[in-house]
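Students often ask why we bother encoding 3D structure as a string. The short answer is that it lets us treat folding as translation between two languages. Here is a chain of 359 residues written in the first language.
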Amino acid sequence: MTLYRIGSTGLEAVPSTTYQAQEIFERRDLQKILIDKIGAIADGLMILSEEFGDWEDSRRRLDLLCVDRQARLVVVELKRTEGGGHIELQALRYAAMISRMTFQSAVAAHARYLAEKHIVGDAGEAILSHLQWEAEGDAKFPSGVKIFLVSADFSKEVTTTALWLREYEVDIRCIRIKPYLLEGQVLVDVEEIVPLKEAEEYMVRLREQETEVRQARAQGRDRTRFRLIIGEKVFPSVTKTRLLYEVVAEALRHGAKPRDILDGVRYWIVVDGHVDTVGFMVRAKESRLPESSTDFVEKFHTGDSELFHVNDKTYALTKKTNPKTEMEIQKIIDRFNLAGVSYRQIGDDEPMARIEGTA
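And here it is in the second language, the structure alphabet:
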């Protein structure tokens, strides 16, 4: 990334520099700057300790130990070098070592920090205030551990490692603080490069989808998907539930009656009148049908655009499927001569077979 200023001749590149060239040091300068302005790298952080090393059999010291408002401990490791060195390996060690820290240990560490800085205040009250807790034990502490790697730049090895760790739900971030020199003044561009916001949102959605699939499998749901064609309309990927719905809808468009298509109370809820979703829910509950319990909305297609209106009655089709559902779909296609309907299971190697109704 290049930083520009608007000059008399247009955009003029601001030359980058290094902390070494400007005689800016990690502990003496960068660390002090971040202590004074920790919000530059992330919102909602409170510094618990500087140069934290309260563990047995180790002389290693963590640059900055923080806590966010969700009671997650935050390891902040600094490097002024361009590549970041082995910053991620150090930070992982520290994250593991503080992961079992208790609330009282955090209070003790912060009390020492306040004393070293000659700051008057109660460490415990300060932490409670930051977390917006009334007392210790209001929630789990710590609720997790985050890692912030802060450097002038990062090698590909560091960013690749960070991205790989994030795939395993380790909350690790790379924050670049690149120095520039403008008319004798050092400017710093602060940018979170791992994860990129767009990439993070994508990964969150991906994890949510994976979680949904795992839960569905655990509950024994059928996640089979199909490619469906009805006339000129193509449905690239539909569930078995939606496949049944669309084929039934097509049969109704061909003049079939709902209970001629699928007969039985397990398939339909029907109420008198041409009503919308709200009216349907009211009348279905008033009817006291066994299907119209409080969770029937989850079991039947009840959206305004999903309800079927036939002869001054309103029908809702079931969402339930079973191993015999495809056989039922084939019977509907054959019985009502739905010549424009074709489908196949996604993932099948064989070419898509056209399923024709018979006269």
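Translate back mentally: The CA atoms of residues 36 and 47 lie 10 Å apart. Keep this in mind for the problem set.
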